Amino acid sequence: MVLLMASILLLSGCSALLEREYSQVTPHNAVPTTEGDPSILRADSYQELVNALIYFVNGGTEEEWGGRTMDVSVDYEVKSQTDTRVSFVVTMAEGWVASFEERYCYNLDLAEDRPVTLRDLLGEDWVSVSNAAIQRQIEESRGEDGSTYFFTPEQGGFATVDEETAFYIREDGVPVAVFPEYSIAAGAAGCPEFPLQ
Description:
Blueprint: H1 2-11, H2 15-19, H3 46-58, H4 62-66, E1 71-81, E2 85-95, E3 99-109, E4 114-115, H5 118-122, H6 126-140, E5 166-169, E6 175-178, E7 193-195
């Protein structure tokens, strides 16, 4: 989580805050608090703290927020299908205040009753072919000022594909690598997809 926050700060131009020297520390409250001070949050148990924070942050009580429901959506899309092969993606999304999406890719060889792999589609050099295609597309996504949604490998961004890399197969037979939201790029990039050609 700390790495993610540091990455966001670096990408948002706030990196100067991380490099700044702080020579003066100012206490939050120079005057001691007194009993009954309405600006002080007090709780005798964890549950009281949770209730107080919910009320403070949301401007209401836990009961007022109890009527809200979490939306969960599960869907699928067939990406390609032949007599011997099918490729489909199952998408699960959940949302309340913010949204989160996960994609699960399935590529099945119906004739041999086994999963289709990137090696099957791209050959023995599938790792190099995939990495080159993804790196090229990440570079092409850069704005004129050099900005990008993608993290560097040092920040936890894309480094290489492996046997666990999710992908689906387009109608034209081209495999498309799919990465989880927030895994190699900022959340604004969604679930990044890269045709491997």
